[in-house]
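Schema walkthrough. Field components (list of strings):
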Amino acid sequence: MSSVAGNTAVQLHEGRSATSMWLVLFIELTLFGVMFIVYGSYRFMHLTAFHLAALGMDTQAGLINTIILLTSGMTAAMSVTAFQKKNIRFSRFLISLTILFALAFLLNKFFEFSGKIQNGIYPGSSDLMSKPEGEIIYFGLFYVLSGLHILHLLAGIIFLILAFKMVRTNADAEALQITKLKNITLFWNVVCLIWLFLYPLFYLIH
Amino acid sequence: MQELKQETGTGYSQNIYIWLVLLALTAVMTAVAGIDLGDVTILIVLVVAIVQAWFILNYFMNVKQDNKTYRIFTTASIVLLFFFIYLCIH
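Field assembly_structure (string):
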């Protein structure tokens, strides 16, 4: 009887936890959605300036980061599969791989930002301020959206580290662990999902 | 615990296939962006981004197997986002 009650409690917790997580994810998507619409509106107003600014973007860096994040999304999803198949060691390995990909993304971003800063393209720089208004807005939006995305990525790394510590062979807590691991990988894939829109908007559309 | 065992998670091979599809779509998106077709280029690039988002939501995030409400909300928000961005950029 107590086992049935325990299972019901776990299912209830799983349901509530999933709903809360999806609510958070919708808020995140709405936040970025609004920012993308702001980008679109400014692009409409400053079409030529946005075109010129986009020509200076490093498409190769954007492409490498897209590949890195898509691969990390796969390893994150596979870590849940591994856990469900009771392959705990492989699940932990996949979580650590995801963290490594996240760090590789950050390293690539660091080089990209360094190049921009060396060329005087950073918020408040005299070089940037001497450019047309549309280009100032373009790079302003680029830094704000990239910064916001990096903050989410850093939060994702912290969650993944917690997942790595949490995932252990402990049958009693298995149901709760899978719920937490699923939520963390959901968050991580939302970080990947957001990048899938940042990449074309800033690096591909001229 | 029995339910956990029976839970229909996606297999490793499926994750790898989806990853390959996503990489192929990224290649298509990047290649198309290099061709100057005016507004058509923007449309194709955004459609490819939406398709990629759909694959991630359904296979990496398993919305397909989740609550129907989440599926409707996520699909609706992604489609709405596409229209808003396209209308603004267009």
